[in-house]
Amino acid sequence: MRADRVFAYGATAGLLGDLFLGDPRRGHPVAAFGRAAGAVERVLWRDHRGRGALHTMVCAGGAVALGAVATRAVRTSTAASVALTAAATWAVVGGTSLAREARAVGRALEAGDVEGARARLPHLCGRDPQALDADGIARAVVESVAENTSDAVVGALVWGAVGGVPGLLGFRAVNTLDAMVGHRSPRYLRYGWASARLDDVAGWPGARLTAVLAAVAGDDPRGAVRAWRADAARHPSPNAGPVEASFAGALGVRLGGTLSYAGRVEHRPVLNGGDGRAVRVADIDRAVRLSRRVGWLALGVSAAARLLVKGRTS
After folding, report:
1. Is-contact 157 299, C-beta < 8 A?
2. Dihedral, 247, 102, 239, 25 alpha carbons, nearest 10
């Protein structure tokens, strides 16, 4: 079987596995990678960009190499190749966990349990929950669903279509490294620079595809495109900007504004401020449903693109 069909069948099986099984409670491969990356950091850390770049090369390069070795080991068996692609896809996508955590916060807010919602929010994003009221928590959840649709689902599928299993594992490694060391704390401002910049590059195509598909699958396609064009470039993140703006327009809500990370207050631009309303608790479920539609559309686009490209070059 051709590699393009192996990806299409394997990625579909992996996305179905994530839908029905979700992430394992223990022993998740991404968590194992995180522990390994932490061990590498303990050996290499210096307050220096070069050391951080070496850390990124060792960890992300190791993930890509592992994927390449595994792919080569099963290349003579179609069934094993499809199974490997399915397992890798299941391991790197996180749509079901994203939806589960978002809805858990939403249920707490619906019940009027703001403290319970604050306790659940760190499972979803890095905001300071104590600095948020109920409306702020709902907005944070919708923003996290939007951004993680790109990071946890669409981006992985895009790089899987480009590079097969090595692409899947490499993208997740880069994204995980950015979450671990890519933030602007005193410890990681220089050491995490390479991981953050590589994540920006790797996330670029998935973020744009996510924004397009949110416009296609959302309730207000014109509003999504309008918000994307007007507001995306104002966001400090080159990839979160298009995604969050498109989701805001598609859902008809306002995102962005003042937020707090680890005691540091940021005043971000409001996305879709001219046409959107404030986020309500019910919008959490709407965002999750939109995220699901975007993920399945991304699978179709990625598989079709790989089939088309391979077909023309064969």
Report:
1. yes
2. -150
CA-CA distance, 85 to 67, in Å (whole number)?
10
Show the tokens assigned to 182. Answer: 């890519």
Contact 33, 176 (CB under 8 A): yes
For residue range 202-243, list pLDDT tens digits in order: 999 999 999 999 999 999 999 999 999 999 999 989 999 999
According to the per-residue pLDDT averaged within each range, which of 46-50, 271-275, 310-314 is highest?
Answer: 46-50
Report the amino acid identity of residue 266: E
pTM of the complete model: 0.94
Q: CA 270, CA 255: separation in Å to the nearest integer? A: 6
Q: In Å, how far are 190, 245, 276, 305 from 301, measured between CA atoms?
A: 37, 21, 29, 6
Half-sphere exposure at residue 36, Cβ-oriented, CA atoms within 13 angstroms: 15
CB-neighbour burial class of residue 32 (10 A; exposed 0-12, middle 13-18, buried 19+) = exposed
Contact, 10 vs 83, CB < 8 A?
Answer: yes
User: 10 Å Cβ neighbour count for 46?
Assistant: 12
Beta partners for residue 228, in sequence order: none
DSSP string, 202-226: HHHHHHHHHHHHHHHHSS-HHHHHH
